[in-house]
Amino acid sequence: MSIIEINNLHFSYTKDEEILKGINLIFDEKSTAIIGQNGAGKTTFVKLLKGLLKPTWGDVIIDGKNTKEYTVANLAPTIGLVFQNPNDQIFKNNVLSEVMFGPLNIGMDESKAKDSALKALKMVGLEEKINDNPYDLTLSERKLISIASIVAMNTKIIILDEPTIAQDYISKEKIKDIILKLKSQGKLVITITHDMDFVAETFERTLVFCEGRVLLDGKTDYVFMQDEELKKAHLEPPYAAQLCRKLNSDKIYITVEEFIKANKR
Q: Which segments does the entry list as coiled coil (predicted)?
């Protein structure tokens, strides 16, 4: 069953320049990464999914709802967006209030909102920080608070905008673990990212955007083996795949873990 349907989607900010050009896609429960150079249309696309923008032409159907017919508030219980910069999202003076805001805003009663917020904070490992001011915490912790704020809303779809920016290895691993947990709960997780290694390690499906169109769409390992198309999109495959090419390896591995396991054998 499709969770999102995109039918002949076109979008323009001005009459003179079309940003998205006839996109047709179906999203099921597979975790999906959207990659591409700056200006490829990725951010515009997820804003259309969230209902922040409306199509110039075509339709975006979110869990059976055409975004043309619904407000952002109407769509909020179904689809959540974690901003690239947590400072653009956080505004409360303590962590628990911040994470409860989303659930309360979509109609959860206070008891249920608090329970959901505490579970989300436990998932991201910040359950001991509930009384702290978010701005007393590190950037990595604020990123996790912004993720928890959306997780607590229990939306069917969660979009992460550049989740690994300014994150160290430990934080990236934590975010990866959160995504895998969300997937195990039946959530559709979509990310925009420039971190190819994170994509290779975490996401089942990858879309390559190039000049407002979908250049590649498929299983992540397949996408990262399409060298010519990746060059057209000005993208490089993950480091493990690059190393395999340089070594003239018979098989291309897209993660370091796969590469090490194969070479141990």
A: none
